Amino acid sequence: MPIAKVNGVDVEFENGMTVLQVAELAGEEIPRFCYHERLSIAGNCRMCLVEVKPGPPKPQASCALPAAEGQEIITNSPMVKKAREGVMEFLLINHPLDCPICDQGGECDLQDQSIGYGRDATRYDENKRAVEEKYMGPLIKTVMTRCIQCTRCVRFITEVAGVSEIGLISRGEDVEITTYLDSAVMSELSANVIDLCPVGALTSKPYAFNARPWELTKTESVDVMDALGSAIRIDARGPAVLRVLPRTNDAVNEEWISDKTRYACDGLSRQRLDRPMIRVKGKLQPASWSEAFALVAARIMAAKLERIGAIAGDLQDAESMKATLDLFRSLGVANLDCRQDGVKLGAGPRESWLFNSTLAGIDEADALMIIGANPRLEAPVLNARIRRRWLSGKLLVGVIGERADLGYDYNYLGAGPDAIGQFVKQGAISKQKPAFLIGQGALGRDDGAAVLKLIGEAAKALGVVREGWNGWNVLHTAAARVGGLDMGFIPGQDGLCARDMTAKGALDVLFLLGVDELDLGKTDAFVVYLGTHGDAGAHRADVILPGADYTEKPGLYVNTEGRVQRGERAVFPKGEAKEDWTILRALSEHLGAKLPYDTLDQLRGKLFADHPTFGQIDFAPGSIPAALDLAKLGAKGKVGDAPFASPIKAFHLTNPIARASVTMAECAALTAGLKHAAE
Amino acid sequence: MSVRRLAKDQPASFAFSAEALEQAQWWMAKFPQGRAQSAVIPLLWLVQKQEGWVPEPALRVVAEMLGMPVIRALEIATFYTMFQLSPVGTVAHVQLCGTTPCMLRGANALKTVLEARVGHRDHPSPDGRLSWEEVECLGACANAPMAAINDYYYEDLTPESLGGLLDDFAAGNAPPPGSSIGRTGCAPEGGPLSLTDLALYDCSRAKAIKLPNAPEKVLAS
């Protein structure tokens, strides 16, 4: 490997690295605004100037200069110091001094770097320029006078989000960042430009003037809005979650999160269930915990075992599902299900419901068949990864299902299951690492098991699973789903599935653990709802047990890869609400079937003992050679010819938290309006 | 240069004429498959030739023809000042150079003429036939002051000659471009002042010179 000298110290680096990266290898901090590791290099802010020998006797922009063998890089000379001061002074010529009223204050690159590298005063006393505000939708607030034209937002929207809606117009002193004719940015990843903006030009609209960064308690946790389990940081002040920001996790979300992950947090304080309730004469009345427990216990004990059922929802942590499972199994109940959408998974080996190539494996795949999924809506961050691989020119994409705008070109192979059939007879594909991406839209149908079998046969024929590569990727939409399937939260012997449990006259007592996506209109059972929001489940419930949402409890979540991740508590549950597992533990005592754990650690101990996979925190099993027989998946049956449809109709309204969010409602209305206008 | 914005009043739609469309396709065919967007500047220029300016619907039409995001077309249209983003005079659009050489040679007096005759810069005259703007150096400093009217340079202007040109354009004529005082290119005013001795050109003053280091043979010949 070539060697360069950074401030007199030899540093070994890889070919292709830039001077800036080499200087960072040596531990030198290089100030920058436009350069970002995950975006293309622009080289227009000039803040990263360093002295390089050999070369012209002037400072060089290190972000855009390839490092070379024997180069001497100097980052601490008087020339570099003066150059940085000069650039900083130029950048501040037109930047307003409005830090006290700027939302970026306290977490502003320009602020920090002007302290670290700037002069103490400006020599400029001409007029500053002002730029008109721009409209960029309900999420991004603009104060364009603050913009320093680094073009990170333009590059992100074009390269990562793939929608090309933000641009830099005019030139010279008059350049402005804008969308076309002030239209809203229509991307599921749009709000990441707020994090990327190094100044306060693009800030968060819902969070505007809410708090200063130093007032916030920051908790590192895991997202539940989709099945990726993106790494997030929850910023709370007192009892309120004020914002959610991404954390870097290269294996999952890199450093992006979807707009829903970021902005559904205002739904955490709306429509909340904060005290137990009992339905009296058709109306829900507040009750005490003991009254509620007594009623639920009486109803459960009065019912026959085969007339009791429990369903787990989409946002649940593994602990609450485990407690529910243990409680009802110990009673002898077989009507258990964690699959509200009726997906026909859970029978085979664990690999059959995982994203086996792992999310990072998409960066290696060279062919991808998307079946019955719309990754742009179901997992926007994953879609950005697919897009990046496609941009590299090494990924061939095929789609069976909805013909949606995914942000990359694909071969459209058909709308329904009949399009899969042609691959069953085909021989192995000539690609090295082919992958299937199987959506819940393909498996949640009545003929889901037969479709699964068909897909399995096609995957086997094409050689999707082979030595050293497992391309059988199931993309879930619910954060809780893989955890539920991993612990076997599926119907036991002669047990009913979720849809059958909600049929008329099927059950006497139905226990819902955060279930809000099921049609509960037909069931005439006594419905107990343990959950957080006044949504579909609470609307139908006879007893409401208020629980904790994902920011209010420590919990384990298993993402679609099978990666177990730990969420942490950022705030306490609202009102009289409790952490879900403690409610179940208390209920178990009323039922005379006391659960064998008194602390969360004991519960986790039991969970790890019963299901060892949960003990492997932050581990995606995709790297294990697969023991997956694709031919044995699913069940024989007649495959219908209905086209596949993504389970997500409105991206911004997929769960009770998002439905309670004002911001999400605004986004959904905007999206629906645009859709309407297009039709 | 001022902040460039799309005009407020925009036509509802835009379509290339058959002739312009043919030219547009000729430009697009010059670039390899998938690189058609390289033709965006010629296409926008064709729009401007056809309409006199670049209306907003045309940006969308051009972007769609070239398979590029419309924001990219907007970036280009706003970057190059040669693209007029609002309507200009239908018979003449005067681009008056106001940079130092022209200014020293009397561009300010020309501005007064234009202000009186056409109106405020960047706004067409009330009848919509004439308009003018001040531009940076157009590279004809030897013939200062000058202006580009429509597609041609009109040089060595005086307030009178510019007024005459405007009258001519307003009458629907197309006066011949070039120097208004009859100079050929940038030859000196009133004919040449140096190198006027005809003997310079008849070889009479030629004499043998000794080339340093030249072989004897060459010298002899």
Beta-strand portion of chain B reads 5-15%
- Give the biggest beta sheet of chain A: 7 strands, mixed
Helix content of chain A: 25-40%
Indicate the mean pLDDT of chain A.
93
Question: Main sheet of chain B?
Answer: 5 strands, mixed
Number of helices of chain B: 8
Question: Which regions of chain A have little confidence, pLDDT < 50, spanning 5+ residues?
Answer: none
Q: From the 3D structure, determine the CATH topology of the domain at 92-179 in chain B.
A: Glutaredoxin
For the terminal residues of chain A, how far apart are their CA atoms?
57 Å
**In order across it, which strands form the biggest sheet of chain A?**
14-13-26-25-24-15-16
Given as residue ranges, the uncertain stretches of chain B (5+ residues, pLDDT < 50) are none
| Beta-strand percent range of chain A | 15-25%
Cα-atom radius of gyration of chain B: 24 Å
Topology order of chain B in helix (H) and strand (E) letters: HHHHEHHEEEHEH
- Rounded Rg of chain A: 27 Å
The number of helical runs of chain A is 20
